[in-house]
Amino acid sequence: MTPLAQLIEAALFAAARPVTAEELQTLDPDATAADVRTALDQLKEHYDFEGHAIELVEIAGGYQLLTRPTFAAAVERAQLGLRTPRLTQAALETLSVISYRQPVGRAEIEEIRGVSAGGVLRTLQERGLIEVVGRSDALGRPLLYGTTNQFLELLGLRDLGELPRTEEFAVALQPPKPDSTDSEGAAASVPAES
Amino acid sequence: MTSPAASAFATAPGNEPGFVVSLDGFSGPLDLLLYLLREEKIEIADIPVARIADQFLQTIHTLGLNQAADYLEMAGRLVRLKVAMLLPRRPDEEGWEDPRHELVRRLLEYQQIREIASWLERRAERQALRFPRGYLPAPPDIPPPPLVIDLAELLRAVEKIISEIPQPVLHRVVPRPLDVEGATRRIEALLAEREEIDWLDALGPERTIADLLSTLIALLELARRGGLHLHQPAPFAPLVIRRDPPRPAD
C-alpha cells in the first residue's frame, strides 16, 4: 500500500464515524483530491481481495470501516456488538414521508399518515435521525423537518440520491383516473353501492 | 365430546361471529382502511364506501375514545362519503366528480409511503449487520424526561440557600474543628425532653458551616447507633428527628 493509503487506513480506524474525503485530504498536505480517491480505491481493494473481515464502505457522505455482514451473528453472540434496535412501523412511515418530502412540516406528515405525529417526531429527533431544518412561511410558522447524516448511516446510504425513485415502487403516486365516460351512464341513475 | 382443538375455535357466546380487528396492529386509519380493502379483495380505486364505512365503524366501536381519536376523523369522512354516494344524481349532471376521488388519492399516497417504509426497513436491517469500530450502545428509545424547573423555582431555591448562609464564608478559616460531641450532647438533651424535634432545633443557635456539619454527622451517627430515627417527608423538606421508640430489653 502507498503511504497515503496507510494514513487513510489509520484515520478510518481511529474515527468511529464516517470521515469525508476532504477530511482525509488533510492527512497529507501534499495530497490532492485525486490522490485520496486513488488511495481509497487501493485500500478498498486491499480489504476486498485479501480476505479481510472488514470492508471500506462509502456512507453518509464519507468513508467508514465496517465489519462484513457474514460475521454479525458471531459478533453478536459474543456480545461484542449489538444491532441497533428496529424502528416501529410509525417511525418508518414518518421517516419515509420526511426523506422524500423534506423539508416538511408536521401537518403534511399527519395528513399523509392520518394520525398525529408529535410523539414519533420527538422520538426520531431524540435518536438523531431527523432535525429541524427551518420554518415554513405558512400561518404559525411551523417547524420543518429533514433527515440527518445519522439517518444515512442507519440505512447505509451514501446520500439521499440513493433512495429509490418513487416511480420504482408498485404504487406510483399519480392522481387516480377520472371516471371514464362510458361507465358514466351506468353509474349515473343509481349509485354503484349495493 | 369436544376435543381441545375444537374448543379452541369456539367463539365466546354472545360475540359477533368472525373476528375482531385489534387496532393495536395498525399504524392509523388509512392502514386499517387498506386492511379492510385487502380483506375484501377490492381495488383501491373502486371502494364500496357504504360497506367499508360500516366495517370501519364497527371496528372502532370496540375501542375507547382515547384510542379511537385518530380514527374518528376518518370515520366521519367515510360516513359523509357514504351519504354522497347514496344521493341520486341526474344522468346529465355536469361536473359530477366521484366523491371517493380524494380518499382514493390519499390511500394510494399512503400505500406508497408504506412501500417506502418497508424499503427503509430492509435497508436498515441489512446495514445493522455491519458494525462500526468502537461500538457504542444505541440510546434507549425513550430517554428519561428532562428535569423541568422554571426560573422562578430556581431563583427561590437559590434565595433560600443564600438566606441560610450567615455571611460570606469563602476563604474563611474555620477557627475550630467540627464539634460532633457537642452536637451529639445537644441532640440527646433535646430528645430527652421531646419525642420529636426538627432540623433547626437540632442545629441549635449557632449556624455556621462547622455547626451544620457537626450536627449532620452527629445525627447520622446517632441514627446508626439506633438512638433516633431520621425522616424526611418529602424531597428537600426539613428533616424530622424522632426518638427511637424504647425497645423491650433483650
Would you write up a description of this structure?
The complex is a heterodimer of chains A (194) and B (250). With 194 residues, chain A is of the alpha+beta class. Chain A is 44% helix and 13% strand. Chain A is built from 9 helices and 5 strands. Chain A has helices spanning 3-14, 21-25, 33-49, 72-77, 89-101, 106-113, 118-126, 149-155, 181-189; strands at 54-59, 62-67, 104-105, 130-135, 143-147. In chain A, the strands form 2 sheets. A 3-stranded antiparallel β-sheet of chain A has the order 3-5-4. In chain A, helix 1 (3-14) packs across helix 3 (33-49). The model of chain A is unreliable at 174-194 (pLDDT under 50). Chain B is built from 9 helices and 3 strands; from the N terminus they run αααααααβααββ. In chain B, helix 3 packs antiparallel against helix 4 (65-86). Chain B is elongated. The model of chain B is unreliable at 1-19 (pLDDT under 50). Chains A and B meet through strand 2, helix 5, helix 8 and helix 9 of A and helix 2, helix 3, helix 4 and helix 5 of B.
